[in-house]
Design goal:
Elements lengths: L4 H14 L1 H5 L13 E5 L4 H6 L4 E5 L12 H14 L2 E7 L13 H15 L3 E5 L15 H21 L2 E5 L4 H11 L4 E6 H6 L4 H8 L3 E6 L13 H10 L4 E5 L8 H16 L1
Parallel strand pairs: 1-2, 1-8, 2-3, 3-4, 4-5, 5-6, 6-7, 7-8
Helix pairs in contact: 5-6, 6-7, 9-10
Length: 284
């Protein structure tokens, strides 16, 4: 199935009618309804620290390579549920960082990891699963062209997992070193609205991509954003965030901005609070 813009929008409208797209972009009834345009999370602090920093939630890892992921353990999920109840915050997203050392394209356990992560996301009312492609899982060859064999395997495995994700109200969001058009090509091959892009403005800037143009090109294909600027506080590094914020606003994005930021002061709560305040001013 080829995912044209028209096909994508038709599917998205159908999902809205079922209430699932709103869920996928950050609003679960049990986890807190989205009351503003954007929510701010972090993948470098825990829920207690996020509460102190006045964030809305956190992104968590699913675990290290094993037949059964840590997040698949009901006791682990119960602990997260208690933390969420205690703090009043939610889990914005899962991060499948283990795929950087045990790639989705080649590890025989990877399809089961997708299933376990989707089922855990349903239980914890998590809307987005970051599916990572860095390190050994990088899909970009030395010639800056797609590694076709790996991409073919990835497309097959994500296509197989997509219906399960849709049923759970979850989006599988791919994050990688690819350009927006290369990502769009992969999404078209998968052809399912439950697979989208996790867009990292820091990674794309480092690769030399035009972040503003890419955001406007991908539009509704973006499920979530990572904000970072190397070892600096947001707004004090080399990235020009104002035009990026304008581009995000222009595509009518409603969802999470997850900070993957540095910790210059070595006080994670203070630094998270400072970076979140910058984001709020940016979008004010």
């Amino acid at each position: 199935m080829t995912l044209t813009r028209r096909t994508f929008l038709q599917g998205a409208l159908a999902t809205i009618a079922g209430g699932e797209l709103l869920t996928a972009l950050g609003s679960h009834a049990a986890g807190g309804v989205l009351t503003s345009r954007l929510r701010i999370g972090s993948c470098v602090v825990n829920l207690e620290q996020a509460k102190q920093a006045a964030l809305d939630g956190v992104e968590i890892r699913v675990g290290d390579p094993a037949d059964r992921l840590r997040i698949a353990d009901p006791a682990v999920r119960q602990d997260y549920k208690e933390q969420m109840k205690r703090t009043g915050l939610v889990i914005s997203s899962f991060m499948m960082g283990l795929l950087n050392t045990a790639p989705l394209a080649s590890d025989p356990r990877a399809p089961a990891w997708l299933e376990q992560s989707i089922d855990a996301a349903r239980d914890l009312k998590v809307a987005v699963i970051l599916v990572a492609f860095f390190g050994k899982g990088n899909l970009l060859g030395p010639d800056n062209q797609l590694k076709r064999d790996e991409v073919r395997a990835v497309v097959g495995r994500l296509k197989a997992a997509a219906p399960r994700a849709a049923d759970a109200g979850v989006v599988l969001a791919i994050e990688n070193t690819l350009s927006a058009r290369q990502n769009a090509q992969i999404l078209e091959e998968i052809g399912h609205q439950s697979v989208r892009v996790y867009y990292d403005v820091g990674n794309s800037t480092s690769r030399g991509y035009n972040v503003v143009e890419e955001i406007r090109f991908l539009r509704e294909r973006i499920a979530c954003f990572h904000f970072k600027d190397r070892d600096r506080y947001l707004g004090e590094g080399t990235i020009q965030f104002e035009p990026i914020a304008s581009a995000i606003t222009s595509i009518n994005y409603h969802g999470w901005i997850v900070m993957e930021t540095a910790n210059p002061s070595r006080d994670p709560v203070a630094d998270a609070r400072r970076n979140a305040a910058f984001i709020r001013r940016l979008f004010a």
